[in-house]
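worker-3 :: picked HAD-IA family hydrolase
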Amino acid sequence: MTIRGVLFDFSGTLLRVEPAETWLRAVLDEAGLVLPRGETARLASALEEAGALPGGAPPRTVPDGLREPWRDRDLGAALHRAAYTGLARRVPLPRPELYDALYDRHMRPEAWRPYPDTAEVLGALRERGVPVAVVSNIGWDLRPVFRAHGLDRHVDAYVLSFEHGLRKPDPGIFRLACDTLGVDPGETLMVGDNPHADAGAAALGCSVHLVDHLPCDRRPDGLLPVLELVPRPGTHPGRKSP
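worker-3 :: tokens ->
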């Protein structure tokens, strides 16, 4: 099978969100708050356990009042904010405005770090004429993150759940991505870290390659095998202009 297009998940695949303590400390610093020794680490651990950091670990339990926004969080910006700020409010913080500040922080480019091989792999695919789409279950526009990290020039399309009312593993979102790139699903590779959501592309006929959801320093070359699955220069009939 010849791969003529590649779809990538965002969080945990191409980029990784900052650790919970770094996330909380950045917001506290901006607010001019200094907590007693050890308190920042304790609160960060509690927020992480509550599942309050988007892109981090999911909550162990979801309170009854948050079940609906949590279920539909990737279908709308307001639902996404409500779900995550609601989870964060399970942890008492020094000021009420910190909950929205934490949510806002996670959407900033500096809260995200590309995996060490992300730029190399995306750049190589562009050189080989293989179009790329980012397909993400998300409630906010991640394009500024890609621009800030110099990755946007390697991406042909973004297919985001909250913009289309579709989310992985629904085959419809993968079909939309393939149609946007102008490639057949049978000649498309989906790369992600979630065996349930990302492997849903297989139902459409896409090939699937899963990577480990690990911190950046523990996964320096997890994306490189993708380059073994795509054609070398001169073997692809061409791509559309970016």
